[in-house]
Amino acid sequence: MTRKLALLLIVTVLFLPFLPLLIWSFAKGWYFPQLLPQDWTLQNWVSILAISSKVGQGFFQSLLIASISTGLALLVGLPAGRALGLMTFPGKGAIKLFLLLPIIVSPLATLMGIQFMLIRLGLSGTILGVVLVHLLPTIPYMTLVLSSVYANFDTGYEAQARSLGASPIQVLWQITLPLVAPGVVVGALFAFLISWNEFLLTFFVGSGRVFTLPMVLFTSLQGGNTGLTAAISITSILPALIFLLFSSRALRSDAAIGGLGDV
Amino acid sequence: MFKTDSLPTPMPYLSLQNLTKTFHGTPAVRELWLDVNPGERISLLGPSGCGKSTTLQLMAGILQPDQGDIFLEARSLRRVPPEKRGMALVLQKGMLFPHLSVGENVAFGLKMRGVSRVEQAERAIAMLDQVQLSGFENRSPSELSGGQAQRVAVARSLVIQPKLLLLDEPLSALDASLRSDMQELILRLQDETGVTLIIVTHDQSEAIVMSHRVALMFDGCLRQVDTPEALYQHPVDETVARFFGGVNFFPAEAQQRQLQLSGGDRLSTEHPQQGPVQVTIRPEQIHVMPDPICGINLLPVTVTQNRFIGTQRHLTLKTVANLELQAWVPPSQNFAVGQAAIAHLPPDALWTFPAQAEGGDCSEQGRQLASTRSRLGNGNSNHQAPDQVEAQSLS
Predict the structure, then answer these.
(1) Which of A209, A260, B57, B105 is the Cys-Cys partner for A125 at CB 3.0 to 4.6 Å?
(2) Where are the bilayer-spanning segments (chain A) (predicted)?
(3) ipTM of the predicted structure?
(4) Containing domain of residue A80, as a range?
(5) How many angstroms separate the CA of residue A79 from the nearest CA in chain B?
(6) Does the reported pTM lie above 0.80?
């Protein structure tokens, strides 16, 4: 009973900030000193859900960019994380520090140079260009998460599988990936959300031609339509919530977690 | 590179030839030669860090040797990846795949070989029956006890009918009673399947129970490969003898079957030797009698210590020439401390080895052990333990 109460409390505290947003998105004007809006409307949501709306486009563009960024970050992060987690080589500490650079250094400081490069490459204002700059913060996160996952991974499982007749590819698919899956899910979640919420890099590199959800939100915020902005905000939180629910299910499976301990 | 003075002998089932593996400049395995017959149970025995697990991993293909080669059924394994070697590995921790059920674990090797689903299930279940785990196929590995997990690991390895079953300290994580049950089980399974078994262990009693021959390793070198009996009775040097619980060592001058002790006593042995030697006798082979009798190899002694350990009595004896001997006698034979007695050292139990042969060069011994295919000594290892004196011929 107390446990349920505590859980309820946590959920309430976490979601309380979203309550005004939810109310705003259905309100037709909500001004001081009203406790609740006088008039309600579905207009904001209707305009968002219209297929041709900016919001819809932004949503799918964000989804596309975040998915590709996550995929590419995984492609780099899996081998890099393995190397950092399992192998010892000179300069490993320096490489780990180097990986933190995009997190330490403000993207504003590097934007000029990046923009200059991307313009020369003709990638400014393209989705590919945006994906590339999104890799700047996502690859370090992914690599660091996966390196700590691999640090707890016992390669004895792989040796065992090889001796039982599994080829390296079979070992990867049947043993290694299932065993590191929880870490991969966490890393992918991080990468996806970082890319999904990225504003500054997209704003400059996209040059107004790549229009992700945060950009839509930004313009709407400038436009001053509070109800519409609230609705867009909620839309932009949705994938994070869905992803979180999905991954918590993946993380709960103790068979997957078990791979990190010994049997 | 190889001498060809002996007639070509048929290639043994498994042959390790001149295996050398170095980690960061430290040799883990040095010039190791070993032949194994089909269906043989052989154990690699030695203290931790002696290179026995490395040797096993070289066989399994997890590690690549810096030098040398391994032949299985006369086929070089140098370029054969682990999955194609037909060797199954059982590691200390069992290493059951935690995301698969017990049945899926056992069937894993079959699945990799493309065996049909129905046959996989049939053979996995039959194998689980053989290790007395019927009905466990749907359980998760996390629900198993340590002994059960290890039995599943053995089943998983045997179901693929390997040419070689490699066990790396498979029982060291289990408690004593479970361990002897597992030893019985493994011996029975080996008997039924006829699989060639190589077991790595640091426990000499386990090595003795489990194997036809024991390969004793120190510092990356094979010291002696012999039957358990021979290792007890006829160790090649003091280190080997001490590893198998030898406690009595004393110097003597040998003239064929006569041993002249430094204190003046004369003993005769059935094992002829020449020159300065180190004599050893196992403590359980010394007979202690309260009264003088007629015969040879009798030493008058005084009992200086008497410890009752349940199944035996451990006596410490001192001869007139101040030589100390340990004798393990039946518990019924009680002696008072200070009591005079006669120690009988049977001639067949008195074993000798050259006094200076302690240690020796790895390649020297490797060559001896390889008997028929010996290597002309060049690759002399530059790493020598400080106590190792100049390499000498052992025979």
Answers:
(1) A209
(2) 63-85, 97-119, 125-150, 171-194, 200-221, 228-246
(3) 0.74
(4) 56-262
(5) 20
(6) no
